[in-house]
Amino acid sequence: MEHILGEEWTIIPAGGSTGEAYYAQNNNKRLFLKRNSSPFLAVLSAEGIVPKLVWTKRLENGDVITAQEWLEGRELKQEEMKHPRVAKLLSKIHHSSELLDMLMRISKHPLLPEDILEDIKENERLFTNIDPWKQIYIAINYLELKLDEVRAAKHVVCHCDMNHNNWMLSKDDQLYLIDWDNAMVADPAMDLGMLLHWYIPKEEWKPWLERYGVEDTENLYTRMTWYAVAQSLTFIQWHRMRGDVEEAAQRTESLMQLMVNHGIWNP
């Protein structure tokens, strides 16, 4: 990174699982750098969803480096996910034709529930002979049983990781949703399911969804629960593949509690 900006810049890793993000500072100039970030970062910046994109540079090896404004701010706390501005920003993202057009142009075909289920089942076969977890098969069975009920009439740009750590509030009170590396064209229930199941008490779903701009129907609830279970399984498998058994076990406990709360499983 130093040879891109010059020796007068101080560059330090920004952390994260990929190790591809950095902070750069030169006196009062500060940038957030990332290698091979989402190709539609420019339209995200233009829509005010992420901090402003300053420049993009392609290296000789084909890697692309992006530089964004480095803003002072903080991630949202879990309880702040209830705030109306979160619903408003997510609604803006899901209803953006510019974002959808861009993501479709870079060959992001809609992610269908049957594809998600098949990936989960394929990954789980890797653990069958090693350390099969009974709870996982209960969840997979639920996904299979409900598959025909989760066909979406509309697909939108989904962020696919509604963790509160990805919601940033700047010092000037501007809300952003960052880290778009896993974005997909999919059922909006994918984002809604994760966010509501993780952060919003069930009795507050109706007013939250009204602020987002959608009617709370039984079909929407079914789709949100289906995607919440599916994404939980995906995260569990990811941690198991990395050898992080403790984190996978904790997420499995959370998954089973989700299923108990919604009458999917009765231990």
Commentary on this structure:
The chain has 267 residues and is of the alpha+beta class. The protein contains 10 helices and 10 strands. It has helices at 2-5, 41-46, 84-94, 97-105, 113-128, 134-146, 189-199, 205-212, 218-241, 245-261, and strands at residues 10-13, 21-26, 29-35, 53-58, 64-69, 73-75, 156-158, 167-170, 175-177, 184-186. The strands form 3 sheets. The chain has a 5-stranded antiparallel β-sheet with strand order 1-2-3-5-4. A 3-stranded antiparallel β-sheet has the order 6-8-9, with helices on one face. β4 (53-58) and β5 form a beta hairpin. α3 (84-94) packs across α8 (205-212). The chain is globular and about 60 Å long.
Helix content: 40-55%
Compressed to H and E, one letter per element, the order equals HEEEHEEEHHHHEEEEHHHH
> Terminal Cα separation, in Å?
53 Å
Proportion of beta-strand residues: 15-25%
Structural class: alpha+beta
Beta strand count: 10
Q: Average pLDDT across residues?
A: 90
Which descriptor suits the 3D outline?
globular
Q: How many distinct helices?
A: 10
Strand order of the largest sheet: 1-2-3-5-4
Major beta-sheet overview = 5 strands, antiparallel
CA radius of gyration: 20 Å
Report the uncertain regions: none
